[in-house]
Amino acid sequence: MITCSAPGKVYLFGEHAVVYGESAICCAVELRTKVSVEKSDENEIIIESILGRTGLDHDTHPYVSYVIEKMRRFADIKGVRIIIESELPVGSGLGSSAAVTVASIQALNHLYECGLSLEGIAKTAHEIEKMVQGNASPTDTYVSTMGGVVMIPQRKKLDLINCPIVVGNTHKFSSTKELVGNVAKLRSDFPSVIEPILYNIGQMSILAEKLVSEGDYKTIGKLMNINQGLLDAIGVGSAELSSLVYAARGSGAISAKITGAGGGGCMVALAGENNAEDIARAIENAGGEAIITNNTKEGVRLESLHG
Prior knowledge:
Elements: E1 2-13, E2 24-39, E3 45-49, E4 52-54, H1 62-71, E5 80-86, H2 96-111, H3 118-133, H4 139-146, E6 149-152, E7 156-158, E8 165-169, H5 176-189, H6 191-214, H7 217-233, H8 239-250, E9 255-258, E10 266-270, H9 276-285, E11 289-293, E12 301-304
Parallel strand pairs: 3-5
Antiparallel strand pairs: 1-2, 1-12, 2-5, 2-6, 3-4, 6-7, 8-10, 8-11, 9-10
């Protein structure tokens, strides 16, 4: 059995705007999805996760099902058992779908000796996300594959974020496809209003590129907080997210904003050296689940060749 893992991610800047070609800055976090694969003698496809045990199933396991179909371009996949374990909640804005897609591709890549490069994995994973979600950005799949801090669409690696990252989960599920569709309709209905908002979200990423290299988290935090206001303006906020965002800021976070599609899911806060625990407590007191994590330079990786 071969096991591979891929990290989740948080956005510092750029969600939704990146779908329209604007810049985003995204960083991999040390919360991972592990995918284990082995060949099956019965020529049967088996996919197992917290969601249940299925065969090829585009409703319960859409991403992994499409991975198997895509990887059949590179290998003769007849029978395979795939086991998924994840630290990433589904529909949370932490890139759970990208992580399971990337880890699955790499695991099958090793199992069947397909010879896919990291760039090839990222490209194939993005194709699969587009099949499931519609107008999906390449950000999540690229960052999950490569790790680190990445500026998209330039695919430029930036310095690591050297401060604690606190994630707050509302446990309210949100559909990326639905939220992206809502923003698209708003943009279509009010282009003169919405397009400048998306442009300005992208401009924050460009301003922040230098700030990341300088480690100027205070200024990065100011821009992240502005980004949060613009995300609210395009309708992807929620009462639950706002509650966690303001709880984190009130307890001393450098910044706090939505990460991902919004509408529910998670927010992210940058913490100082000594107040991550305080921020986590404030998030939990406001009704969320808090996770303290860090940026990681590692993307998809091989965990084990033997289980």
